[in-house]
Write a structure and sequence with these properties.
Helix 1 (about 10-20) crosses helix 2 (about 20-30). The chain is globular. The strands form 2 sheets. The protein has a 5-stranded mixed sheet. A two-stranded antiparallel sheet has the order 2-3. The chain has one domain. It has helices at about 10-20, 20-30, 55-60, 75, 115-135, 145-160, 185-200; strands at about 40-45, 55, 85, 85-90, 95-100, 165-175, 210-215. By secondary structure, the chain is of the alpha/beta class.
Length: about 220
């Protein structure tokens, strides 16, 4: 039997999906990522699939997105794009993509390390997404906080360019003492404000289908 990951956001997300999906659903509901009373069918990470995480077209298929009708993925992003921590489908049909964090340094991702050819396409798509999220911003989204930016770019591709209902959720775990993680929502929100300031983003991206959810690992520990 496949065991949960040893520690950190990967472990707690696996525990939440497998053992406490209602807690995870409530966290998404509170932040507005899914409608009140909606259910979510999690397609990854699930035990029967070895807690596999998905990227590229395989990730889209997990979210019931079989085609991007207006702008194909291959025209927007090179192969080996973001690996999603969790993918689900809400009962109203929207795709749900999750990026999870358990401690602040985990959010400070390095710059893009793609090859020259791939980097050119990535930077063009990041700039296109940046104009939609923050028209006045001038930051280079392929630098610091690149991981955060490339998740935003994929949400832009799915919902804005292709008109498909989708929610991007940044899930922040609270009270992960083993990882020396934040002990409050306020601490995480301060870190998010810094990321948004660096990327030139407004405080809220909810109108773009981007949300911040919070879940206390203390509610999950007895399930692990």
């Amino acid at each position: 039997m496949t065991e949960f990951a040893r520690a950190g956001s990967q472990r707690w997300l696996q525990v939440a999906v497998e053992r406490q999906p209602d807690l995870l659903r409530e966290a998404l509901e509170r932040c507005g990522a899914i409608p009140h009373g909606a259910a979510v069918e999690w397609r990854s990470p699930i035990r029967e699939d070895g807690f596999c995480e998905y990227r590229d077209a395989a990730a889209l298929r997990k979210a019931n997105i079989l085609e991007l009708p207006s702008r194909p993925l291959k025209d927007f992003w090179p192969a080996r794009g973001p690996v999603w921590d969790a993918i689900g489908v809400a009962s109203d049909g929207r795709a749900v993509f999750v990026e999870a964090k358990a401690h602040i340094p985990e959010a400070a991702s390095p710059a893009c390390r793609a090859s020259t050819v791939s980097l050119s396409r990535i930077q063009a798509s990041l700039a296109e997404a940046r104009r939609a999220y923050a028209p006045k911003a001038t930051a280079d989204w392929s630098g610091l906080f690149y991981q955060y930016a490339n998740r935003l770019a994929h949400q832009f591709l799915i919902e804005h360019l292709n008109g498909l209902p989708s929610a991007l959720v940044f899930l922040y775990f609270i009270n992960d003492a083993e990882m020396d993680g934040p002990t409050s929502e306020a601490e995480w929100k301060g870190a998010v404000r810094l990321i948004h300031a660096a990327l030139g983003l407004p405080a809220s991206l909810a109108r773009h289908g981007v949300y911040e959810a919070f879940l206390d690992v203390g509610l999950l520990k007895h399930e692990a």
